[in-house]
């Protein structure tokens, strides 16, 4: 049943769900739109509504062929920049944006086509030219955002939509600024980080404030994944992934032209200052594009075989995590026991922080050669893949925690054998698995 959103928009049916809310197919004065309605428990946070209202200008101001445009922001009445009022809908549908239900909704351009996760799952790996074209487009969108002082902070395949309505598919980055707004601490609250470990730049793990270079790191991680079918440091426990982000070097992808690989390595550098800026990344990728045309997807092995071998290890890992009361990904959210997994960790000492003994970065294999690690990065695994995101009370604490994690047994590749030593936990990482991507 249709519901009003603000005074100009109507939501018709659900297109998909994310961790922060539900996206609806809607209708507005200028035709079809997508409407992202934030979860009730998030929207009920007056600070969050205020932050969205405060960022209204930035959210609505980003216009670029590779960015999903935000047309309207509907926030509870009383907040600066509130959307227009309309009658509230029934409890089971999307409520209206008049403040009665306290809703926050982002009215966006409707993208006709799948998200990149869905596309990659279907294709297993993309041909270098396609992967590079997608990445170059998104990089050009990022360049505009970065020039406006906006860092995305959550670049990943789920947030890249493919418009397939034209002759050539066009990649568009969505969810700009949403991660930052949701992540910001309440007044007087603790600081924290929210992100998806596979794409999280090392400086975030180390507690530095996220700057534009984190988006470059994440985007080139996406490029790596499009080419390889798995991310450079993914697999297993999220804490282990975070530790690899900080300590391990990315494994080369056999069969990739040197120039492209060198570019990727530069953008995956641990030091943010070493990475290219978005505009340069876009133009360098476009320069490389003609030489890549006609190259087939990389031949790195059979992901189906990986799936068979790797899935049990992943499940063991989840069940090995100590059970705790559910802790939400997003601060203030209601726990969801069905999709939550958790781990808790103590602060390591200096020796432990040195880490490194349990390195788990995987070298790409020759065809047919099995790969140790998680099913999350195989294509078959991706079909069942649930996104992992991590939230940490105190980003600096995370920096210490991840170094400790593998050395004390939270690592992806040996969780069961290497249990904790019984020291009392002093801080924790809460891990929540998101719903399957639609
Ligand atoms: N502008 C849009 N046009 C068409 N479909 C969209 C649009 N924005 C999002 N969607 C679809 O809605 C679904 C949910 O999107 P949403 O951004 O809420 O979640 P997500 O990015 O998958 O996860 P999360 O928000 O947890 O990172 C996705 O499947 C996406 O393809």
What does this structure look like?
This protein has 438 residues and is α+β, with helices and mostly antiparallel strands. It folds into three domains: 1-110, Phosphorylase Kinase, domain 1 (2-Layer Sandwich), CATH 3.30.200.20; 112-184 and 193-299 and 326-353, Transferase(Phosphotransferase), domain 1, CATH 1.10.510.10; 389-433, no CATH class. It has helices at 40-43, 46-54, 56-61, 116-123, 128-147, 178-183, 202-205, 212-228, 238-247, 258-267, 278-292, 303-320, 350-354, 379-383, 395-407, and strands spanning 3-5, 9-17, 21-28, 31-38, 70-74, 105-109, 160-163, 170-173, 192-195, 340-345, 386-393, 427-436. A six-stranded antiparallel sheet has the order 1-2-3-4-6-5. Strands 9-11-12-10 form a four-stranded antiparallel sheet. Helix 5 (128-147) packs antiparallel against helix 8 and helix 9 packs across helix 15. It is globular, with a radius of gyration of 21 Å. Mean pLDDT is 71; it is low at 80-100, 186-191, 307-363, 365-397 and 405-438. Bound molecules: adenosine-5'-triphosphate. The site of adenosine-5'-triphosphate (ATP) has 24 residues, from strand 2, strand 3, strand 4 and strand 6. It holds the Pfam family Pkinase. This is non-specific serine/threonine protein kinase.
Key phrases:
alpha+beta; Phosphorylase Kinase, domain 1; Transferase(Phosphotransferase), domain 1; four-stranded antiparallel sheet; 15 helices; binds adenosine-5'-triphosphate; transmembrane helix; Kinase-like_dom_sf; serine/threonine-protein kinase; non-specific serine/threonine protein kinase
